[in-house]
Amino acid sequence: MNSLRGFRLTLTGALLLAPVAFAQTYPSDNEIEPLKAYDGNRDQFTLHIPDGWFVVDQTPYRETGVVAFYSQALTMRLDEDPAVREEQTRQMMALADDLMSGAAPAFFIDRYKAGSGMVCSGFSDKAQKTKLKIIGNSRALGKGAKVVGQAEVAKVDFAGCKGLRVSMRVRVPADEDKQILVYTAASDDITYDFVLLTNAKYFEQNLPWFERVITTAKLTTTQ
């Protein structure tokens, strides 16, 4: 999963293309709107996401790449007044930081070619070890990042397949500790990582809604 940079680029591009009306506070899990079906990638997967969320498919004409889901709808255009535009730009960057940190809810799905031993019926022991290395790749999580302690790994039924649930804490120099949770499964030679990545202090507040979304996920083809 070398997609964190892609997630950042997707987020930045979305903000620049469609500036937003900003919220001063973000909803807690019990305030999140009822889940609504999302089938924008129904040839690969379906799931339910909170109503009103904003979706960006980084590579809409490819089987692989990042699909990002943000809690803040992008609706407002930049003002023509330079002073107002400057303030809007500052707010956009603040929102980007909140979405990246987990202060504002967001998650993403990374799709890439499945490695050896990664199939819908499960991951081989070797594939599981490979998966842990991919998720903990320091280049994806930040320069100099290191996994803190032991990763938590469990085999789970996920999205109609036999997959993995991987959770780990990561320490990044000159930044706050991160917590990453990945549900992963493979189908038709594609691996799907459903990823919640937040600053450690925001992880618990994001976990309930993310787990709710995960229970609705289904890979369209499960071979």
Overall CATH class? Alpha Beta
| Major sheet strand order | 3-4-5-11-10-9-8
Tally of DSSP helical segments: 5
CATH topology: Protein Transport Mog1p, Chain A
Count of structural domains: 1
- Cα Rg: 17 Å
Low confidence ranges: 12-26
Strand content: 25-35%
Structural class designation? alpha+beta
Plain-language structure description:
With 223 residues, the protein is α+β, with helices and mostly antiparallel strands. The chain has one domain (4-219): Protein Transport Mog1p, Chain A. It has five helices and twelve strands. It has helices at 4-17, 82-101, 125-135, 138-141, 203-214; strands spanning 35-38, 45-50, 54-57, 65-70, 106-113, 118-119, 122-123, 146-158, 161-171, 178-187, 190-199, 218-219. A hairpin with a 6-residue loop joins strand 9 and strand 10.
